[in-house]
Design a protein that fits this description.
five-stranded mixed β-sheet, six-stranded antiparallel β-sheet, 369 residues, elongated, 20% strand, alpha+beta
Length: 369
């Protein structure tokens, strides 16, 4: 589990190793989604029956059909002050060394429906709360699980819980590393990583990659006259508008690069679709109560912008288009390559940017690649 790269890999490793440790033929890991009142299966391992998938999209069961996780386990745990223990069920409907009161009609019905002989179910406890369960089954005719198996399953569930908790901590750290704390959008680090991958795909199979870069106009005036708290609300509001527009393009990444600068990255949609969304973004930004609209530049490999072999070049093209939009006080997006192909003034600007004054170079040093 420690070597797993994703949460899905983590629970898959747990299911597979518990399956082997308990000598079963099938195992599953399910999570208790409290807000939806259901047990949702994350992974199935071993011998699958009809209708079962390794990573099911939506295999779930109402908790009231399998109430142990929400009812007697909690009572036993809270009342006795001990960790909840695993229990055993068999297709005959009589528990086999799994602990007193283990029998549940739905568990038995599920065993019969799936053609399995017996199972051991172990609760997974995370941060002092029931998180989900481990389930391991054997076929009819195989030796039934006993009390020792149930005790061992309890220990294995605790080990799995430790692995899942570690994965959750790493996911949270990863989320914080790639998220802008003010707006909740992706940050510059996330854009750089995604854009590098996107350009590699473009070079390999010609997929269209587009980048929209925009500066929120009037933020400094809002900060100076109304205070930074109001300026932050403007940034959050524009971030919501950008997120809404980004949702119009499948798989788009919406990000705040820093300060008043935002971007939208797409892989796949045609250049015209992206330009249309950028135009809608400009219209919505202009309608915001505060601020003065947005300066928006677009660069897409679907336009005549010359070869794009690096993320740096696409960024420079989108940045140059945004610079033109800001200088012209454009109310809509400026698109690289649409006013003369390789001779386009935006393309020339990207390839030969004007030298900034020394003070400006110092202020913006390291801002963009």
């Amino acid at each position: 589990m420690a070597a797993a790269r994703t949460p899905q890999d983590t629970v898959a490793a747990a299911a597979e190793r518990v399956l082997a440790a308990l000598g079963g033929t099938f195992a599953a890991v399910s999570v208790w989604e409290r807000e939806r009142g259901r047990l949702r299966v994350l992974v199935n391992a071993g011998e699958l029956t009809a209708g079962e998938e390794r990573f099911p999209e939506d295999e779930s069961y109402p908790v009231h059909d399998f109430p142990e996780i929400a009812e007697f386990l909690h009572e036993e745990w809270a009342g006795g002050g001990t960790e909840p223990r695993a229990w055993v069920e068999s297709m005959e409907g009589a528990e086999s060394g799994g602990g007193q009161g283990a029998y549940r009609h739905e568990r038995v019905a599920a065993l019969r429906r799936r053609g399995r002989g017996c199972c051991v179910v172990a609760p997974v406890v995370l941060h002092g709360r029931a998180w989900g369960e481990l389930y391991v089954a054997r076929p009819p005719g195989a030796p039934s699980f006993g009390r020792q198996d149930a005790d061992f399953a309890t220990v294995l569930a605790a080990v799995a819980a430790a692995g899942i908790a570690q994965t959750e901590r790493l996911e949270e750290a990863r989320r914080l590393a790639f998220t802008d704390p003010l707006t909740g959008l992706a940050n510059r680090r996330a854009v750089d990583a995604r854009l590098d991958e996107a350009v590699e795909r473009h070079m390999a199979d010609g997929v269209v990659v587009s980048l929209v870069v925009c500066d929120l106009n009037g933020l400094k005036h809002v900060n100076d006259t109304l205070g930074h708290a109001v300026g932050d609300r403007l940034l959050e509001r524009f971030g919501s508008v950008l997120s809404l527009c980004g949702a119009m393009l499948p798989g788009a990444l919406v990000a705040r690069l820093g300060g008043d600068e935002f971007c939208l990255l797409t892989v796949g949609p045609a250049a015209d679709e992206v330009v249309g969304v950028a135009a809608e973004l400009c219209r919505r930004a202009a309608a915001l109560e505060l601020g003065e609209g947005v300066a928006c530049g677009v660069a897409s490999t679907g336009d005549r912008i010359g070869p794009v072999a690096t993320a740096r070049r696409l960024f420079r093209l989108a940045d140059a288009a945004q610079y033109r939009a800001k200088a012209a006080r454009a109310t809509g997006p400026v698109v690289a390559g649409r006013a003369g192909g390789p001779a386009d003034p935006v393309v020339r600007l990207a390839d030969h940017p004007p030298a900034a004054p020394v003070a400006e170079r110092r202020r913006f040093r390291g801002r963009r690649p």
